[in-house]
Amino acid sequence: MRVLLLGSGGREHALAWKLAQSPKLSALLCGPGNPGTARLGRNIPLKAEAPDAVAALARQEKVDLVVVGPEAPLVAGVADALAAAGIPCFGPVAAAARLEGSKAFAKEIMAEAGVPTADFQVFTEVAAAEAYAVSRGKIVVKADGLAAGKGVIVAPDAEAARAAVRAVGAMGAAGQQMVLEELLEGEEVSVIALCDGERYVLLPPAQDHKRVGDGDTGPNTGGMGAYCPVPFLSPEALAQVGERVIAPVLEVMRRRGTPFQGALYAGLMLTRSGPKVLEFNARLGDPETQVLMLQLGEDLLPLLDACARGRLEQRALALAPGASVGVVLAAGGYPDTPRRGQRIEGLEAVPTGATVFMAGVEQKDGALVTAGGRVLTVCARGKDLAQAREQAYAAISGIRFEGMHFRRDIGARGLRAAP
Ligand code: AMP
Ligand code: GLY
Asked: Which of 88, 107, 113, 180 has its CA 20 to 30 A from that of 358?
């Protein structure tokens, strides 16, 4: 099969790495890709958010399957354009990607599907939102539209709530409508289902680390590291999330005439009264995918292809034993103003037990330099979480670039909870 993979982050390098192991793969094209995907396939300069350009390239290259990594191409209608061109695509059409693109829409679907989530209200007026937020005290304020991970503010008291509403209200298009919701407490877990519009298979539960600093301090980021599986969600509890969250959402989306096909990512809070959905994404997570690809014990390509063609078999996936950990190495200044152009050293000496996925990296004058906030995800699989952590951190000790920073506690919560 000839596959075109869209995106250029660590998630896409990990998907390329896994797809490249498939005996069914005959060619891997990455648009636009990064220096990591270039080692596994052919990078093609491409604006992945331009539906017509993607469809034209897929046709020209006689692609059998397009795999969409990030959300922007989905929301822009890349899957719609490919459907019109008759080219199978892993990833939802724009009307289904609204589950991620609009928080208010996601809430509407959850209400219809009876999915447990935080109590909420939707506002279009800043003044009304402010009055409500202050009356509630602690609350979470979310911009309705896509805001590159910056549209959610957790406000622990009335003063913070007022400031949060004003900040989101001043955000422009994404903040025109906002969702104010109950602040939930508990462990956060990412559950990702590969779906064909009707059926699904569940990837093992992963935990992301969203704050920039150790001990979950500092501003939110795209994700500073992940591990899987997480000990807080047993295989039985995971299956229940499939039945109570994934299945009913697929059913409602189908009934509405916009079946969801692709990766349905449920961001969950494991509260005292059970798992509740914080958000849906219409794609695989980053950095969750990096560890999930290490942990998946079967060929990824037939799974994605079966989703795209509506022929998925609902069953348990084969998993590798043990656990995987991925630590993001971020550029100086991230998440505010990441410094570009810093030379990355030590990658050739990474120990064999570790796998390094590239993200904000570019090739310049024969060297690899930083070109974005999240630069690398250093991953390792071990016989258990403790060993996976040790191996990932040992591999990091040989990698350097000016301003490099990373969290030292990826997986620590899981380790504390492990039996
Ligand atoms: P989101 O982009 O919706 O995943 O939100 C980003 C982060 O904000 C989540 O990963 C949580 O850490 C936090 N968050 C979102 N909603 C809530 C909530 N209702 N209660 C507590 N924390 C939340
Ligand atoms: N790791 C969080 C996300 O992909 O949205």
From this structure: 88
Residue 64 pLDDT exceeds 80 = yes
Neighbours of 187 (CB within 10 A): 17
Could you give phi then psi for residue 213, rounded to 5 degrees?
-110, 160
Is beta strand 89-90 parallel, antiparallel or unpaired with respect to 65-68? parallel
Q: Say which amino acid occupies 45.
A: P
Q: What is the pLDDT of residue 85?
A: 98
188 CB within 6 A, ligand 1? yes
Question: Tell me, what amino acid is at 215?
Answer: G
Closest atom, ligand 1, to C-alpha of 208: 10
Q: pLDDT by residue (tens digit) across 183-205?
A: 999 999 999 999 999 999 999 99
Tell me where in the chain the CATH 3.40.50.20 domain(s) lie. 2-93
Closest atom, ligand 1, to C-alpha of 118? 19
Residues of the chain with CATH 3.90.600.10: 323-417
Any ligand 1 atom below 6 A from CB of 141 = no
**CATH code of the region 185-309:** 3.30.470.20
State in Å: Cα 305 to ligand 2 middle. 23
Q: What is the CA radius of gyration of the chain?
A: 20
pLDDT at 419 over 80: no
Fold of 2-93: Rossmann fold (3.40.50)
User: 267: Cβ below 6 Å to ligand 1?
Assistant: yes
Nearest ligand 1 atom to the CA of 278 is 16
For residues 2 and 22, give the distance between their C-alpha atoms in angstroms, rounded to a whole number.
12
Task: Answer positive or negative: Cα dihedral of 275, 279, 281, 285.
Answer: negative
Note the ligand closest to the C-alpha atom of 150: 1
Give ∠ CA 99-102-108 in degrees, rounded to 5.
65
Contact 340, 244 (CB under 8 A): no
- 282, 264 Cβ separation under 8 angstroms: yes
Ligand closest to 153 (CA) is: 1
Q: What is the pTM of this model?
A: 0.95
Chain mean position to CA 219: 18
Phi, psi of 84 (to 5 degrees): -65, -30
Pocket residues: Cβ below 6 A from ligand 2: 208, 223, 281, 285-286, 288
Measured in angstroms, how far is the CA atom of residue 41 from the centroid of ligand 1? Answer: 36
Task: Point out the ligand 2 atom lying closest to the alpha carbon of residue 223.
Answer: 1
